[in-house]
Amino acid sequence: MSTIRVDNLQTAGGAGLYLGKAWVNFNGTGTVAIREDGNVSSITDNGTGQYTASYSNSITDANYALTGGTVHQDNFNGNVNVVSIPDSYTPLSGSTQIKVLYGNYASGGPTDQEYVFVTITR
Description:
single chain
């Protein structure tokens, strides 16, 4: 069976259709563990709410977009969870750091969450 490489599909209108380069669903509490993934070889726990996702196959470069979410577990009391790349981190083509923050506009900080979902698109 041959492999077909697709980086940028075109739609009828000419706009690109860009595919995810990596995705992961992992448990971010206790012993961090991947539930399911695509092109993620491991998740490293770097401390409360901070992780590194390593890719099975490196991405072309580090100019990708990270999208993420969590299962909100506090009865919607006005707080939110945000999944991002830490501001002090420079993304790499072979891995990225992930930070999960919890709180409201006035307070909050890093938090471990049982369900963390991340997609990398390039």
